Amino acid sequence: MGDLMDSITALQTTFQQVSHLAKGPGATKLITLGPLLERSSSELEKKFDQILEILEPSVRQNKKRKALSQRLKWPFQKADVLQIIQLLERHKSNLTFAMNSDQM
User: Fold this and answer.
1) Which tens digit of pLDDT belongs to each residue from 48-85?
2) How far apart are the first and last CA of the chain?
3) Are 57 and 104 in contact (CB under 8 A)?
4) How large is the C-alpha radius of gyration of the chain?
5) Which residue in 31, 36, 40 sits closest to 102, CA to CA?
6) Phi, psi (deg, nearest 5) at residue 70
7) What CA–CA distance (Å, rounded) separates 51 from 69?
8) Is the whole-model pTM more than 0.90?
9) By CB neighbour count within 10 A (0-12 exposed, 13-18 middle, 19+ buried), where does 23 fall?
10) 43-59: buried (b, 16+ CB within 10 Å) or exposed (e) per residue?
11) How far apart (Å, rounded) are the C-alpha atoms in residues 32 and 11?
């Protein structure tokens, strides 16, 4: 889970940098970054929604059972976590590349 959190944190930092650039004086020159940011945001929002569905137990479970099941079992397999990390890293790399391209 540590690798997943590290990837999420790194992507968050990249998004903050992108946001700073997008609000800066040269924002109109960000021809590569703009469309990529839209696509990345959309794809990541869908993925995070899927992850939340898995992490949030069914509404039909009672509160005690819900709390117990959340504490005892991580709902993702290692392959699932690695796939999520790869997705996050791909978006981070693409955004970083686009930022660098636009700044040249």
Assistant:
1) 888 888 777 654 555 666 666 656 677 788 899 899 99
2) 36
3) no
4) 17
5) 31
6) -70, -35
7) 16
8) no
9) exposed
10) eeeeeeeeeeeeeeeee
11) 18
DSSP notation for 19-76: HHHHTSTTGGG-TTHHHHHHHHHHHHHHHHHHHHHHHS--TTS-HHHHHHHHHH----
Residue 27 in tokens: 């924002």
Buried b (16+ CB within 10 A) or exposed e, 61-92: eeeeeeeeeeeeeeebeeeeeeebbebbeebb
Tokens of 73: 């079992």
12-48 pLDDT, tens digit each: 888 888 877 777 787 777 777 778 877 888 888 888 8
86 and 4 Cβ atoms separated by less than 8 Å: no
